[in-house]
Amino acid sequence: MKMNFVKWIQDGIAHRRVAIYLKIIAILMLLSALTHLGSIMGIIGGSWMDKPLLFRVADMLLLPIGLVLAWGLWKSMFWAVVVWFATVVLFQVIPFLFFGEFFAFSAEEQTMHYGQVGFHAITFVIFFVLLPRMKKH
Is 104 left (phi over 0), alpha (psi -120 to 50) or beta? Predict the structure, then answer.
C-alpha cells in the first residue's frame, strides 16, 4: 500500500533534521510576529494608524498567528506545518501575486513582496528536501 502525502509529512517531521529545521522556521515566525507587534506599537514604519487599513488588518491577524505558529513549529506539530503553508499562501502568495497593486505602492515595494514570496517558496522546498524519501510498497 502506498504511503499517502499526509502520512509522509507526519512521519517526516519526527526525523531529527526536519525537527531542527522546523525550529529554525519557528524562530523566523517568532521574529515575524515580533515585527507585527513592533508595527502595531509604532516602532516599525511610523504610526500604526497612518498605515493603510490592509496593513493594519494584516498586523492584527499575523501577530497571534505567528506566535501560535512559532510554538507549534517548535514542537514539530503536524497542524503547524499545515498552518504555516496555509498562512503563507493566504497572506502572502495570493495577496502579493494577484492583488499586488493594493500592497505595493512602488516598484521597490513590489520587488520586496516578490522576494518574500520567493523566500517562502525556498523554505518549503528545503522542508520537502529534508523529509525522508517516500517509501514505495
Answer: beta
| Residues 13 and 19 sit within 8 Å (Cβ to Cβ) | yes
Q: Helix 78-88 vs helix 107-130: angle between axes, to the nearest 10 degrees?
A: 150
Residue located via cell numbers 507587534: 37
> How far is Cα 103 from Cα 125, in angstroms, rounded to an integer?
26
C-alpha cell at 85: 503553508
Distance of CA 36 to the CA centre of its chain: 13
What's the whole-model pTM score?
0.87
pLDDT in tens, 22-67: 999 999 999 999 999 999 999 998 898 998 888 899 899 999 999 9
